[in-house]
Amino acid sequence: MLGAIAGDIIGSVHEGTGIKTKDFPLFVPQSQFTDDTVLTVAVADCLLTGASYVDKFHEYTRAYSNRGYGLRFLHWVHRGSREPYNSWGNGSAMRVSPVAFAFDTLEEVRSEAQASAEVTHNHPEGVRGAEATAVATFLARQGASKADIREVVERQFGYDLSHTIATIRPTYEFDESCQGTVPQAISAFLESEDYEDAVRLAISLGGDADTLACIAGGIAGAFYGGVPQHIAGPAWQLLDDRLRNTVTRFCEQCQIKL
Questions:
Q1: How far apart are the first and last CA of the chain?
Q2: CA 109, CA 68: separation in Å to the nearest integer?
Q3: What is the CATH number of domain 2-254?
Q4: N or C: which end of the chain has fewer CB within 10 A?
Q5: pLDDT in tens, 104-134
Q6: What is the rounded distance in angstroms from the CA atom of residue 241 to the CA atom of residue 243?
Q7: Are the beta carbons of 177 and 202 closer than 8 angstroms?
Q8: Low-confidence residues in the chain, pLDDT < 70
């Protein structure tokens, strides 16, 4: 979970810049958590307390306004809506990582990932993106090999993970869809050498940088056994007490090392 949050914070200053290199500072004075972190923690809160996703998404978004939410999601919150709006955006995938740590079977993870997605993103692509991200993270947490993670994601979700980042990068553009974000982020993880490399590869695509890095970072954090301290420390300090408290309680309950 902290892997997703740290990826979001590192990517926050690169969103929409079209960056095409892995050579950049991890943290700068402008680094901050975005809607990716806020809603990831909201999902963790739901899993801790049993509260509804709708209620917590409304509550957290109002508490942390101006964090870069999508317009349709903001309208959904501001109207107090409780019905989904058929989105295929990558918001369902960027917030789902806690689900991978809260359950012990692949079936439970898929079911809860769907539930967390479809309160807003009930389009098949929105659900597919959330499920694929959660499954990849769950398998990484369980010690599966990268080859096995690739095979399961391709077989169960139909994503093509055969392309390298070097072949994707030249023509890749900003894309807020699940189908244009999730396979690319998973590919960045699969190609990575360690947590930091996964985040750098994802950001170097030059797209929706915070979300790409959030998804890739969440999987990488699970696979590589956590987030290195030189990244975890600064990311942790950029959260406020409320977010840190929820993350801490979730990690304690799920026996995740912070």
A1: 9
A2: 27
A3: 1.10.4080.10
A4: C
A5: 999 999 999 999 999 999 999 999 999 999 9
A6: 6
A7: no
A8: none
